[in-house]
Amino acid sequence: MSSIYIHIPFCKQACHYCDFHFSTSMGKKEEMIQALIQELELRNEEFQNQEVDCIYFGGGTPSVLETHEIEALIETVYKNYQVTDTPEITLEANPDDLSEEKIEALHASPINRLSIGVQSFFEEDLKLMNRAHNAQEALECITLSRKRFQNISLDLIYGIPEMSNARWIQNIEQALALGVPHISAYALTVEPKTALENFIKKGIIPPVNDEVAQEHHAILVERLEAAGYHNYEFSNFGKPHFFSRNNTAYWEGKSYIGIGPGAHSYNGKRRAWNISNNPKYIKAITQNELPQDVEELTPTDQYNEYVMTRLRTQQGVSLKEIATLFGSKMQTYLLEQAQSHIENHFLFKEEDRLYVTKKGKFLSDGIAADLFMLNLKP
After folding, report:
1. Regarding beta strands 264-266 and 270-274, do their DSSP bridges make them parallel or antiparallel, or are they unpaired?
2. What is the pLDDT of residues 57-111, one digit of tens each?
3. Which of helix, strand or coil describes residue 301?
4. pTM, rounded to two decimals
5. What's the CA gap between 269 and 302, in Å, rounded?
6. How far apart are CA 266 and CA 17, in angstroms?
7. What is the CB neighbour count within 10 angstroms for residue 153?
8. Concatenated DSSP letters of 321-376
9. Which of the residue ranges 23-32, 82-91, 145-154, 265-274 would you say has the lowest mean pLDDT?
10. Rounded to an integer, what distance in angstroms lies between the CA atom of residue 119 and that of residue 157?
11. 162 — alpha (psi -120 to 50), left (phi > 0) or beta?
12. Mean pLDDT over residues 209-233, rounded?
C-alpha cells in the first residue's frame, strides 16, 4: 500500500516557529490547484502497480481551500491511481477555518479524517506562536467536528517557553476530555531564520529548554497511555484502529508521492523533493516538467533510513529484517553499536527486535545516529 501527500502552500499568517514552505498570498491559488492536478497526472506511472490507501492534504493550511477545490484534487487521484475501497483521506485544518458550514461541507466530501492544529488551549501560548485561532475556537471546532467525523486527530506543542508542567497537563486533560481518538504532540523546535529564533536572540522570548521538553514528553506518554492511547510512533498516539495511515506509512518505510511545492517523495531506493517556490513550481508543471531534485539512496543510506524510522515506532528495529535486507554483517554491526545503549537502559532487545526504553524514548533520534553506518560499500 502507498500514500499520496498533497502540499497546500498557503496560510493566512505565518506562525513564529514554522519553517515549512507556504505563502500568505492567495493570489495564485487557482493556478496552484491546476498545477497540483497536473502533477498528479504527470506522476501516475510511479504507482502503476501499487494501490493507494491514504491521501493526505498537508501544508501550509489545506483548510483554506474551498471544498470543491479539495474534491477536484481527490477526483484526480481516483482518475489516475488505483485507490483502495476504504482509503483514509485526511485534511489538516486550523480551528479558525472549521465553521459549522465548512465542517458540513467537508463531511459531504470524500474527506474522512480531520487533523486539527490546536497546538495549545491557552491564549498566551497561541499568541507566542502567532496562531490564527484562539482557545475558544479550538474547543468549539472540535466539538462541532465530532458530530460529523469519527476519525479526528489534534496537534499539541510542548516545551513552550514558560509553560509549566501544570499547564501542559491541563492541555493534555483538555484534549482527552474532547474524546478525539488520535493526538500528535511535538516539542517546540527553534528552526533557523524563523521569527521564533529572532525573538529568542533578541531576548523577547526565553530560550527553549530541552530538559523541560523531555519532562513534558514523559508526562504526555504517561497520561495518554493511561487513557488507552498507544504511542505507536514517538510523536503520535492513537486509540486502537485509529493510527494515522500517513504517519504509519512514513515510519514503516512505505512508498509515498509528495505533490506540490516543497513536497518530498520516497520509494525505498530514492528520495525526491520539489522546488520550494510557488511561481517556479507552477511554471515548470505547466511545461510538463517536474521541478524536483532526486537523491539515489546507497545501501548505507537505506540502512540508516531503516534504523532511524523504525527505532521511533512501537515495532522497533527487526534484526531479522536487517539481516535479510542488508546482510548478517550489518546485523552484527548494529548489535555492537547498540550495546552501550542497552547497558545504559536506553535500548532493550527482545527476541529479534531492538526497542527504545521509556528512558531513551526522548533521545531516540540521537540513539539512532549512534547506530548509523558511515562507510558501507554498495
Report:
1. antiparallel
2. 999 899 999 999 999 999 999 999 999 999 999 999 999 999 999 999 999 999 9
3. helix
4. 0.94
5. 7
6. 26
7. 23
8. HHHHHH-HHHHHHHHHHHHHHHHTTSEEEETTEEEE-TTTGGGHHHHHHHH--S--
9. 23-32
10. 5
11. left
12. 96
Q: How far is CA 273 from CA 49, 142, 245, 262, 266, in A?
A: 22, 33, 21, 6, 9
The CA–CA distances, whole Å, from 369 to 30, 39, 295, 365, 366 equal: 43, 35, 20, 6, 5
Tell me the per-residue pLDDT of 140-179, one tens digit each, with 9 for 90 and over. Answer: 999 999 999 999 999 999 999 999 999 999 999 999 999 9
Question: Measured between alpha carbons, how far is 95 from 117 in angstroms, rounded to an integer?
Answer: 7
pLDDT in tens, 296-322: 999 999 999 999 999 999 999 999 999
Q: Which three cell numbers stand for residue 157?
A: 506543542
> CA 240, 246, 247 angle in degrees (round to 5)?
70
What are the grid coordinates assigned to 247, written together? 504517519
Q: Give the distance, in angstroms, between the CA of residue 142 and the centroid of all CA atoms in the same chain.
A: 20
151 and 242 in contact (C-beta within 8 Å)? yes
Q: Cα(first)–Cα(last) distance of the chain, in Å?
A: 28
Q: Distance between CA 156 and CA 163 in Å, rounded?
A: 13
Q: Is 258 a residue whose pLDDT tops 90?
A: yes
Which residue intervals of 202-295 are DSSP H helices? 210-226, 245-251, 278-286
52 burial via Cβ count (<10 Å: 0-12, 13-18, 19+): buried
Q: Which parts of 223-302 are beta strand (E)?
A: 230-233, 236-238, 256-259, 264-266, 270-274, 292-296
Question: Residues with Cβ < 8 Å from 349, sequence gap 6 or more?
Answer: 335, 338, 342, 355
Residue 48 pLDDT exceeds 90: no
